[in-house]
Write a structure and sequence with these properties.
Blueprint lengths: L4 H7 L1 H8 L5 H18 L5 H15 L3 H9 L4 H13 L7 H18 L3 H13 L6 H4 L1
Helix pairs in contact: 3-4, 4-7, 7-8
Length: 144
């Protein structure tokens, strides 16, 4: 399986050695690919809405102690705490970080969820005003 040399460098020798081990089963490789895609999503500095959302979803997946995360790590023959520790290390070294546009998209996402959950017109109007105040974002309707 081909991996980005940059990603292998970022992940370090121990994890990279496990990834390029030719003795892995197809199932282990599949679960390793899930972990690697989550790292790629977290490292993505793209300015599109979907980049920011995938980044936040991967961030939550790595940082929340869920059964899903632990199972994927075990199936990939990785210790969950080692993978989570590497993720946290990349955050502390500011290798994983958010751009200002990504943060605006995440604010937009949160506000939109609030907007959809509102029961009153007054609340919706207030949230919609805040959504429109987020500068630098182009929603799909505005791109047309």
């Amino acid at each position: 399986m081909n991996y980005s040399l940059n990603l292998l460098k970022i992940l370090g020798i121990n994890i990279s050695r496990e990834l390029i081990d030719g003795q892995r089963t197809p199932e282990e490789r599949l679960f390793q690919a899930i972990i690697l895609q989550a790292f790629e999503d977290a490292l993505n500095m793209g300015q599109h809405k979907h980049d920011a959302y995938a980044k936040q979803d991967s961030y939550n997946w790595f940082t929340n102690d869920t059964k899903n995360f632990n199972n994927v790590c075990w199936c990939a023959s990785f210790e969950p705490e080692i993978i989570r520790s590497k993720f946290n290390e990349l955050i502390s070294k500011k290798i994983i970080k958010y751009t200002s546009i990504q943060l605006k998209w995440l604010r937009y996402r949160w506000l939109y969820k609030q907007y959809r959950a509102c029961n009153s017109f007054k609340e919706r109007k207030k949230i919609l005003k805040e959504i429109k105040s987020i500068s630098g974002l182009k929603t799909p309707k505005e791109n047309k």
